[in-house]
Amino acid sequence: TPQKMAAYLSVYNNREKLPLTREDLQMVIAAAGVSSGILEDELKRNLDKNVLKQSLVGVQIARGTRPLAGRVGFIELLRRPYNARVSNALLSFDPVNEDEEIARVHPPERGTPGVDILGQEVPCAMTAEAEYRLNHLIKSLKLGNDTSLIAAAKGHIVQDGQSLILNEVLTLNDDITTHSGALIYNNDVSVYGSICENTSLNIEGSL
Prior knowledge:
mainly beta, 3-stranded mixed β-sheet, rod-shaped
């Protein structure tokens, strides 16, 4: 085939001639440059057919090994990011502490190259590094092949596309009510709405 990942054999018998032998096939295969992925069982089975004077049309006699894709680099979030746009956001709030690991960046893993029927290596696709941006309150630490992302202050994590941001001040634009749930935060909170009666607040910083 044009991709050099498979080879096919066709034999049209002339009954006045002897059938192909194993040596004949080896010469044909070698002349075509095929040296890898030869399907020995298929050769034997189809040689037996040829002995019985059956024509062989488009019999696959070799198959290359396709490359295996690697793994793209990715970020594993260890703490849930805060999303102010979701309803009942306080119930899903997940503050972090200073020097706490918030995420782990895993490098890409290279795939496995393949081999075509001519014995040539078939390269695997390149795998990309994880793309991300950090603000100044997140520091990185190399841990073997991985990179640890660590909070440099108390706050909460916000993920915006490829950006990972640590905010020290929690800004709430809506009212805090008994329906939104208790607010527990380890730093400063700025509320632009109302704080209703019987609402539970546990804040370490200023309000």
